[in-house]
Design goal:
mainly alpha; two-stranded antiparallel ribbon; 5 helices; 56% helix; extended; 116 residues
Length: 116
């Protein structure tokens, strides 16, 4: 392994269009993303936060409420998408790493802003 990877991290990859089973990790871009996050530990913690984003705590609170209320119904888990500011920062990292050009960056950025 050439760079740290943990749950929740977005890992830049290339997929062979002629053989989708062939996948190559963009290690230089991964290293740049880790450096931008403040190092391996900070990147791993951020990835874990993005993965779980309070979902485990929310599920436990709902389960406790169900017990108090006497209901047996389980609430489906909630997933959280990264906020727009985080997504724009990720787009910037892709642009800086040369994985997307300025036009792609601006188009994706505008789509994120339009979601607000």
């Amino acid at each position: 392994m050439q760079a740290a990877i943990s749950a929740g991290m977005e890992v830049p990859v290339k997929i062979d269009p002629n053989d989708p089973k062939r996948v190559a990790v963009q290690w230089d871009a991964q290293k740049a993303s880790i450096a931008a996050a403040g190092g391996s530990t900070a990147a791993a913690l951020h990835g874990l936060d993005q993965t779980y984003g309070g979902a485990a705590n929310a599920a436990m609170e709902q389960a406790m409420k169900n017990l108090r209320d006497g209901t047996q119904g389980a609430t489906p888990p909630t997933t959280f998408a990264p906020d727009v500011q985080t997504r724009i920062a990720q787009l910037d990292e892709l642009k800086q790493a040369g994985l997307i050009d300025e036009q792609q960056y601006q188009a994706k950025k505008q789509k994120l802003i339009d979601q607000l």
